[in-house]
Amino acid sequence: xxxxxSSLIWSIIATLVLLAGKNxxxxxNCISDLEYSSPRNNSxxxxxxxxxxxxxxxxxxxxxxxxxxxxxxxxxxxxxxCSFELIRDGRTLVLRHSIPFVAKEQVTVSDGNNxxxxxxxxxxxxxxxxxxxxxxRENGELDEGNVNSKSVVLPxxxxxxxxxxxxxxxxxxxxxxxxxGMNYPGFVYLIDNSGDVLWVDEVNAYDFKRVxxxxxxxxxxxxxxxxxxxxxxxxxxxxxxxxxDTDFHHIEYLExxxxxxxxxxxxxxxxxxxxTGGNPAAYLRSSIIQEIDSLSKSxxxxxxxxxxxxxxxxxxxxLTDFIISITHINSFTEDYDGNILISAKKLDEVTxxxxxxxxxxxxxxxxxxxxxxxxxxxxxxHQHDVNRLPxxxxxxxxNSNYTGVQPRAIEYKLDTVLMTAEVVWEQTHNxxxxxxxxxxxxRLPxxxSLICWGNASGSVPSVVEYDSLGNKLFELFIDSxxxxxxxxxxxxxxxxxxxxxxxxxxxxxPLLDTYPNPASTDVNVVFSLVDGADVEIVLLNIEGVVxxxxxxxxxxSGFHQVQLDVSEYATGSYFLILNADGIKRTRKIIIxx
Length: 593
What we know:
Layout: H1 9-19, E1 34-38, E2 52-56, E3 70-74, E4 78-80, E5 82-86, E6 92-97, E7 106-111, E8 119-122, H2 129-138, E9 151-153, E10 160-165, E11 173-178, E12 187-191, E13 197-202, E14 205-212, E15 215-220, E16 225-230, E17 235-239, E18 251-253, E19 259-269, E20 282-292, E21 299-304, E22 323-325, E23 329-334, E24 340-344, E25 349-353, E26 360-364, E27 372-373, E28 384-388, E29 394-398, E30 408-415, E31 420-427, E32 440-443, E33 449-452, E34 463-466, E35 472-479, E36 488-491, E37 505-507, E38 511-515, E39 522-529, E40 533-541, E41 546-555, E42 558-565, E43 572-580, E44 583-591
Parallel strand pairs: 20-22, 27-31
Antiparallel strand pairs: 1-2, 2-6, 3-4, 3-7, 5-6, 7-8, 9-37, 10-35, 11-12, 11-36, 12-13, 14-15, 15-16, 16-17, 18-19, 19-20, 20-21, 23-24, 24-25, 25-26, 28-29, 29-30, 30-31, 32-33, 33-34, 34-35, 38-39, 39-42, 40-41, 40-43, 43-44
């Protein structure tokens, strides 16, 4: 079950007052100039349910906001009734509209108090749930564990770990995840230098790491959000995207207590306007990054790749294809100046963006590279896990796809005045020649480097620790039958933990989706079973109260669809739970009229 904190009391009171439609008096300067808006002005890729974010230059207070003069009007859908939430920074106002926007319409946000704050955007034509499944199938993703089909706990259910401990390593234990697949389970686990498992949980997981002295985090691919745990492995909080499905790749916890998370967004796109032979109704995918407020769980910043990258920035995909993944953002981090560094894998690019305005500051690598490479023949390609080091340099895992160069961990010294990039360190492995995806590198406090070689081909080590001279200190082989580990980290952590193994048996993880979502009268519940199961479908409100429960029915293996009548329920957020022989999947649905 997702864990959420309550908003601040004053935020709740402000929201209730605004929803009650009370006339709040105002002076001519009751609202200051806008500093940032999402969607951005003239965006062409807003979603049907995009939350509108307004951040002002000055602190505003609820009793001074002339909200009656802020209007949201769609050229097709008409004027929208909105709820308002003032975020705890006192400058950010979140608007939620109850009726979805319409594809291709123009939406205008008008501020009668300060007309220079007016802006407009248009709405993308989103793919349906069925079209997204088609996108993933055509893009070869349904076998990669992103859609849970089956997870089997075998007699030797846990992967075989082989450790070659060559010399003394940095302090700490190893944090690992083994994403599951069609015929093997996924795990999130912690091991010591001997390969002994200190803690393990069976879940299709990604990005397991320590995020503070007594907090850990990982992405749960069964629930589609990031869990935050304390040092007893108790789940104490969760983060997900606002009004979007959360992407598994990365979460970045910020100094202000908020978190950066990502999502994939899909739309139809006329590629014939960009390339000769382009499909006029192509399916395109890009990425969104959101900053989620830790208390209200609302997005206070949202950055849409469709607004800043062109489809032709991707030089490896065929742009005449029907299915095109444009950016594939796989990491993002808060830079030393508070702005954000983005790793856009499909563009072979690191992009630095302004955290206040969303504007691009500079671009490193790829088609739009702005730096001169001083001492190497080729930039990184399809990279992962870009981070800023304390010495000011950038470090990343370079998968080196398409370059003819071995996969490597690499460190760059950047001069953002002269716009130069210099390679000051790199590390390869004599057995690793191909790593199509995944992987990361972590610079450890003593100067060592821990490298996860990703989904490297052949009988190669999954994780290796090197000293500053390139000597191997620790080598871990993972025989999992599937993906070895998405990433690997070493952090100091108590080693007196209770091992948490599981009983042998078979666990079926059903695929679950719903459409339309948002819905007004009926919701189609689509699910698949690898084996036959007794299935119960339950609808709950946001408080967890059961509103409807469909009678348990025996279903055979394969795809099934059930229609649920939601016409009697009020506009708002709900949860739909599918229980297949005791194994549960949950989807959030929106009812809107």
